[in-house]
Design brief:
By secondary structure, the protein is an alpha+beta fold. It has 2 domains: about 5-60, no CATH class; about 65-145, no CATH class. About 20% of the residues lie in helices and about 25% in strands. It has 5 helices and 8 strands, in the order E-E-E-E-H-H-E-E-H-H-E-E-H. It has a 4-stranded antiparallel sheet, with no helix packed on it. Strand 3 (about 40) and strand 4 form a beta hairpin.
Length: about 160
C-alpha cells in the first residue's frame, strides 16, 4: 500500500489492539470505499482490505447498552486489561497481591477496590461502590429501613 491516506488509514477512525504472550497486532479502521460502501481496514501487513461487515459496528455502543447487556467475560487467563480513550486505565493481575496487602497491615485495600456499580430503579445515575459498602447493602434487611421512632400527628394540623 503506497498511499495510506486514500484509504483513511493514515489517520484511522479506530485502532484495535490485540495481543498474546507470543505476538501482538493492530487493526486500523479507515474510511468507507465510495464504490462498495465497505470499510477499509489494515492488519499491519502493508495492505488495505475491505471488510464485509464493519468492525466499528461492534464497538459503537453507549454506556446504557453496556450496562443493560452487562456480562462479565471470563478473564481467568488475563494478565492485564487496558482502557484507552479520553481517559486511560490499566488493571494488572498480580498474584497474591491481596494477601500481601493484608499481611502488611493494609486493611483498606478491599474497600478501595470497587465491587461494582449500582443503579436505583430507572435512575440514570450509576454509583460505584466499594466491597465494604456492597457487603453492608447485602446485609441490610427490610426492618433496617424502617423509622426507629414514630411521630403521631393529626393530618388536619399538617400544612
Amino acid at each position: 500500500m503506497e498511499d495510506c491516506g486514500q484509504y483513511g488509514l493514515d489517520d484511522p477512525i479506530c485502532t484495535i489492539g490485540l495481543s498474546t504472550e507470543e505476538q501482538s497486532c493492530q487493526i486500523l479502521l479507515g474510511d468507507y470505499s465510495r464504490m462498495a460502501s465497505l470499510r477499509y481496514i489494515s492488519i499491519g501487513d502493508g495492505n488495505a482490505y475491505l471488510a464485509q461487515s464493519d468492525p466499528l459496528d461492534y464497538f459503537d455502543t453507549g454506556l446504557r447498552q453496556m450496562i443493560e447487556n452487562d456480562a462479565v467475560p471470563d478473564l481467568g487467563h488475563a494478565a492485564e486489561i487496558r482502557f484507552t480513550g479520553s481517559e486511560h486505565y490499566s488493571v494488572v493481575y498480580e498474584e497474591d497481591s491481596m494477601e500481601d496487602a493484608a499481611q502488611n497491615g493494609d486493611q483498606d485495600t478491599e474497600s478501595e477496590i470497587p465491587a461494582g456499580y449500582v443503579r436505583i430503579g430507572e435512575s440514570p445515575i450509576i454509583y460505584e461502590i466499594s466491597a465494604d459498602r456492597y457487603q453492608e447493602l447485602m446485609a441490610t434487611a427490610y426492618d433496617d429501613l424502617r423509622h426507629s421512632e414514630v411521630l403521631w400527628a393529626d393530618f388536619a394540623d399538617v400544612r
